[in-house]
Specification:
By secondary structure, the chain is an alpha+beta fold. Helices cover about 20% and strands about 30% of the residues. The strands form six sheets. Strands 14, 15, 16, 17, 18, 19, 23, 24, 25 and 26 form a ten-stranded antiparallel β-sheet that branches. Strand 15 and strand 16 form a beta hairpin. It is elongated. The chain starts with about 20 loop residues before the first strand and ends with a strand.
């Protein structure tokens, strides 16, 4: 947007390869978007944008740009044609460049919508104090005072007035920007690669201490994304992957999206910058060079299956709701880790031109120890709650007949974290590949005609406490890794982590993830070790 002047209206400017300084706006759209660019309005926007038609947040951003003497301003809802999917995909894939190359980003920190604006009277009390020297001949001095806005060492960008930090789209905008000028309802704050500073005098340099979590995260982000010299030293690529999993994705997932389908596009700019630094292959929120660690995520109790395809089941964006990575070996010197599986292949197919955005398909093939099992889940009646009623049992099929046993992996009110389904699980008919004969039945498939199927367990759209019948189906346990914490009093205590996989109901011969299962042998017997003892090595394709 060319910001115009007090005598000339702003207008949408379509550049032709020129170079120059511009500002970028980071803002919360709100529940509605009263002013955007669409195919029907783009020519009108290029000719003139009438001042009175602009929402107040846009007006305020243009005023700031004019005062700073910068003629151009990037506003995503105006600079991207909102009803043109191709233009939206192309421009959203450029977010890394747009915010990283901006002279400065204006952040409407407290504004909850575009109509709210961010230039207004301050929302904190202030008063004037009269100070006397004690000498009657000297006139009194007057000093303006106000209460302290920040707790000691909390930094100027903290507190309850940061609506912008609740939104997922603005996360990458903050990390990618070189300089950010924040407008809150209480003061103006500044953030750059060296420090944060605000009007009330709070100054917070970026430090190298792990104790300073806020500064550390920002410094990590700048070091990773911009490749600049940093007081935070990365000893290996594992440090960067740890940053991606536990800081970037962890912080991002806690933020809100108006459309859950934007989960991958809203992280695309960050992924593009990270890919430029590492040269790695991006896989729907994960990285090929860190895939095994990236598979170790668990869903919250409120995990939901998206109504439309989002990502392959082995990737965290495949589930709506909160999901977190297991911290395996990070900062634990006394932990010995053994990987039992290895990656044979992995790929994702973008749904559009954005190579780090939304995907329409993907698979990974792992080679590791597998065990066929039967998963049994009790029914849930109307009025009952899953937490207080559901029982999950695992029956290992590959054990010798005389030693077969039922493993209770979850009972009512069980506080152990051993079994947390990605979503509510239901029964389904999994498709078998040609030549597979185990426990099969021949049934009529809607698209493929007569096919070989096997009763299995799969994810569903149900909510946690929705009534449902009992489930019984064949699953595959794939042992990913084990770890041993030598600092424990029981030195041979091992933690085994398995993929629990159901047969795919759409791809013959493939599997779909339904959860990550953990056995800590010293606490729950030797289940992990026993299952591994009867496993066989095999290649498994997961979609």
């Amino acid at each position: 947007v060319h910001v115009g002047s007090s005598q000339a209206s702003p207008f949408l400017y379509e550049s032709k390869g020129e170079q120059g300084a511009y500002l970028a706006l980071s803002h919360c759209w709100g529940t509605s978007q009263p002013f955007t660019t669409e195919r029907s309005t783009i020519e009108q926007r290029k000719a003139c944008i009438h001042w009175d038609s602009l929402p107040k947040t846009f007006q305020d951003a243009i005023i700031v740009a004019r005062k700073l003497g910068v003629s151009y301003l990037w506003i995503d809802s105006l600079c991207i044609i909102q009803d043109d999917l191709e233009d939206w995909q192309v421009e959203s894939s450029q977010m890394a460049k747009i915010y990283a190359n901006a002279h400065m980003t204006i952040a409407a920190l407290s504004a909850s919508s575009d109509t709210a604006g961010f230039i207004s009277s301050r929302g904190h009390p202030s008063s004037m104090l009269s100070l006397s020297s004690g000498n009657e001949t000297d006139p009194p001095s007057h000093v303006g005072v106000r209460r302290t806005l920040h707790l000691h060492n909390s930094g100027p960008l903290s507190g309850p007035h940061c609506n912008l930090f609740e939104r997922a789209w603005t996360y990458q905008e903050r990390l990618l920007s070189r300089r950010v000028l924040y407008y809150s309802d209480q003061e103006i704050s500044w953030e750059c690669r060296g420090a944060t500073y605000c009007e009330c005098g709070s100054y917070k340099p970026l430090k190298s201490s792990w104790e300073d979590d806020f500064s550390m995260r920002l410094h990590q982000a700048y070091a990773v994304l911009h490749g600049k010299k940093s007081r935070v030293k990365y000893t290996s690529s594992h440090d960067m992957y740890d940053w991606w999993r536990h800081t970037a994705v962890g912080d991002f997932r806690r933020r809100k999206l108006t459309k859950e389908s934007d989960r991958l596009p809203a992280l695309s700019g960050l992924a593009t910058a990270f890919q430029a630094l590492t040269g790695d292959t991006y896989l729907a929120g994960l990285w090929a060079g860190d895939l095994l660690h990236g598979l170790l995520w668990i869903s919250s109790e409120k995990g939901r299956l998206p109504p439309e395809y989002r990502a392959p089941t082995w990737a965290w964006p495949s589930v709506d709701g909160d999901a977190g990575f297991i911290i395996e070996g990070l900062g634990k010197r006394n932990q010995n880790i053994s990987w039992f599986s290895e990656t044979i292949a992995a790929s994702c197919t973008p749904s559009g031109s954005d190579r780090t955005g939304a995907v329409k398909g993907g698979h990974t093939t792992l080679y590791g120890p597998v065990t066929h099992s039967e998963l049994i889940i009790s029914d849930l009646q109307d009025g009952q709650t899953a937490k207080s009623q559901l029982v999950y049992e695992l029956f290992i099929k590959d054990e010798p007949v005389e030693s077969k046993q039922t493993i209770y992996i979850h009972r009512p009110n069980d506080l152990s974290p051993s079994f947390s389904p990605d979503t509510v699980l239901v029964g389904g008919d999994g498709l078998l590949a040609e030549g597979e004969i185990e426990d099969t039945v021949e049934s009529e498939h809607q698209e493929r005609g007569k096919v070989k199927t096997q009763r299995t367990v799969r994810r569903s759209l149900l909510l946690p406490d929705d009534p449902r019948p009992a489930v019984r189906g064949t699953v595959l346990l794939l042992l990913l890794m084990s770890s041993k914490d030598t600092s424990r009093s029981v030195n041979d205590a091992s933690c085994y982590r398995f993929f629990v996989l159901g047969r795919s109901t759409t791809v013959a011969g493939a599997f779909e993830r339904i959860c990550l299962l953990t056995f800590i042998d010293f606490a729950w017997g030797d289940h992990g070790r026993d299952i591994y003892a009867v496993a066989r090595m095999a290649e498994v394709t997961i979609v």
